[in-house]
Amino acid sequence: MASEETLHPLNLDGKTWGTKWHGYHVELIGTQTNNSTDQTLSYYQAVTASGKERCLLLLTQRIRYKDSPVYGEITWHPEIGFSLAIKGIEHATDEAMVLKAWQGLKLLSKAKWQGKGVPPSLKTEGRPKGSGLLADLPPDDFREKYADLRETYEYRGMKLPTQVDMADHLNVKRTTLYRYLKKHGIKWPPLGPPED
């Protein structure tokens, strides 16, 4: 494992990576490496003040929404692999703090920290209208996704998910969700099979 003097912390503001990252702050801690060929690991290409590039093997990745004491964390250890956790829950003053940390952790877990630190998955130019996940999702599958989200909320002792919660869960705009519901005649909440 890396010694303290070989660890390199980086603090990044997520607002430069798109609207889903607004309000999030990311801390990356890694150790310098010359080998970034193992695609199962996470790397960050950093540029020093002198313009020299260095590659960090990421050992810890943290994401925090604004100044919340609750944050998401991904750690990597050569003998254990990746671990994901929500930390600081004991300091939460409301469930929204925990939910924001969970949403941040989902973002962080999908990020590929290659190419000057901007996750390639966030460098997209957008997708053609109607080509997203929701446009092609059959109503029965939508109801199943809602049931999964509802189960998660109930497990955490939270109220039923709203349409806004569902749109966030599916990573679509709220208006996209509203159009989908209207198109398929789905009433809210979508608890059972379609009504005939």
Written overview of the protein:
By secondary structure, the protein is of the alpha+beta class. The chain has 2 domains: 4-122, no CATH class; 125-196, no CATH class. It is 27% helix and 25% strand. The chain has helices at residues 95-110, 139-155, 163-170, 174-184, and strands spanning 7-13, 24-33, 43-47, 53-65, 71-77, 81-87. Strands 1, 2, 3, 4, 5 and 6 form a 6-stranded antiparallel beta sheet that branches. β4 and β5 (71-77) form a beta hairpin. α3 (163-170) packs across α4 (174-184). The longest helix has 17 residues, at 139-155. It starts with 6 loop residues before the first strand and ends in a 12-residue tail after the last helix. Mean pLDDT is 77; it is low at 1-5 and 114-131.
Q: What is the oligomeric state here?
A: single chain
Q: Gyration radius, to the nearest Å?
A: 19 Å
How many runs of DSSP E, i.e. beta strands? 6
Helicity level, as a percent range? Answer: 25-40%
Measured between the Cα atoms of the first and last residue, the distance is 61 Å
Record the SSE blueprint.
Blueprint: E1 7-13, E2 24-33, E3 43-47, E4 53-65, E5 71-77, E6 81-87, H1 95-110, H2 139-155, H3 163-170, H4 174-184
Antiparallel strand pairs: 1-2, 2-4, 3-4, 4-5, 5-6
Helix pairs in contact: 3-4
Short account of what is shown:
The protein is α+β, with helices and mostly antiparallel strands and 196 residues long.
What distinguishing features does this structure have?
196 residues, six-stranded antiparallel beta sheet, 4 helices, elongated
